Amino acid sequence: MSRNKESLRKPIRIGLLGAGTWALHGHVRVLSLLPDYQLVSVYARRPEVAQKAAQDYGFKHVATTVEELVSHPEVDMVVVATTAPQHADGVKAALAAGKAVYSEWPLTTTTAIAQELVSSARDSNARTVVGLQRRLAPHNRYLKDLLSQNFVGELRSVRIHVSIPYLGVSRGPAALWTAPVENFSNVVTIYAGHFLDMLFAATGWPTEVSAIQMNQFPRVTDQHGNELKATSLDQLVMLGRIAEKGALSVHIEGGKSHGSGVQIEITGHDGVLRITNRSAFGNEGDDYVIEGAKAEDGELRVMPVPASYDTLPPSNYPSAVLELGELYAAFARDVASGSHTAPDFDDALRMHQFFDALTLSTQTGARISLIR
Length: 372
Fold this sequence. Notes:
This protein is an alpha/beta fold. It is built from 10 helices and 17 strands. The longest helix is centred in the last third of the chain and has 20 residues, at 345-364.
């Protein structure tokens, strides 16, 4: 599409449901960066938070209820940026109002509710997006292309390790709600969800898994030193089969005082790729590094991501924020062209079902086949 046609395209008008740290640090900044979007309305449970967001970021309206936000005639798309247990109510309200919907990952707290949201979106013929943005990061699209071009040849093994220093024995006030496992918002569900979706978007999904999920911090402390019970997951160790003859190894761990970020290695009969990031969060300058070598090469060499994979206007935002920007940019192109590149509620449902398989394997010790 030409720049002239892009400039004539009407912006997608956004109603933001929830105005927490990631909503403002991530969503609002990239939506303001992209000409395809316009900030229209904002709602937060605390009215003063919504008022400040409107003043700071230029929302035209401050909604006093969820219903007022989703039914506003100038809102085309509702961004649900509340906590996971609150997602379903916001999504249902937006779908009932006939709006497109973005929901953060996790889509909701159970697979049954996720299936209900998928069915409602289909019945409403609504466009949906889920916040599994890392699959569209420039490095991952480049990685996917390298694999499709047979850089490594037939897959022999895929290994990923992700560790973070947070969500361990100490929890800040904004993270205390993650302690109950039923909230489906912990190291495993959030970080494995994001990073495994990213990896599988490039390599393809496993066909069989065997997993152990653990809670190693059954008692956690808040900022005042008070103890509370925690049942959420903070370790995932998983083995699986991937491609026709490939082996898959996954380790996700939280509360690691000296975390090593993200480490991925992909080995094939013809070559090797290594993908690393010193931070699992993607702070400023924490960009992914891809190294590769053919079987006959002496050593790995850095393979810079070509500039053509960056589709965003210039900014100095952290890489995690830019990944979110790539997701929004992809969705705007989908709306304009009828394509389907941004992950949607069907993708979220698949990830929920994947976690069901991990839980079943943990409980029974069985290998679980994944059928798609």
